[in-house]
């Protein structure tokens, strides 16, 4: 199958795609709450494109930026918090714009 045509990938497929061992994926699943692959009826992990993107971010932080697992986890947590803050600020901005138009 061509890339982006599957909804779910198994552990071995993902490990081959990103260039790591399947055991590393299972380890990171325990260490990073953001990485939470779904399970099928036989309890096998099923990774989505979003999960694969998180794995790539973990690998980038570790390999390219030399961060530890703790440092990578903290960096990803901060990024999520900042994205949530941006979303809140955009909602407030829209609300204020709507009020301004009414006045």
From TrEMBL:
HTH merR-type domain span: 8-78
Database matches in InterPro entries: DNA-bd_dom_put_sf, MerR-type_HTH_dom, MerR_fam
Highest taxon of source: Bacteria
Database matches in SMART domains: HTH_MERR
GO molecular function annotations of the record: DNA binding; DNA-binding transcription factor activity
PROSITE patterns given in the database record: HTH_MERR_2
Alphabetized Pfam families for the sequence: MerR_1
Keywords in alphabetical order: DNA-binding
Identification of the protein by name: DNA-binding transcriptional regulator, MerR family
């Amino acid at each position: 199958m061509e890339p982006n045509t599957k909804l779910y990938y198994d552990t071995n497929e993902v490990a081959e795609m990103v260039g790591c061992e399947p055991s590393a994926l299972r380890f990171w699943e325990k260490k990073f709450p953001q990485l939470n692959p779904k399970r099928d009826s036989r309890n096998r992990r099923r990774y989505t494109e979003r999960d694969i993107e998180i794995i790539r971010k973990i690998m980038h932080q570790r390999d390219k930026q030399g961060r530890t697992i703790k440092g990578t986890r903290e960096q990803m947590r901060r990024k999520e918090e900042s994205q949530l803050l941006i979303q809140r600020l955009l909602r407030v901005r829209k609300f204020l714009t709507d009020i301004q138009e009414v006045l």
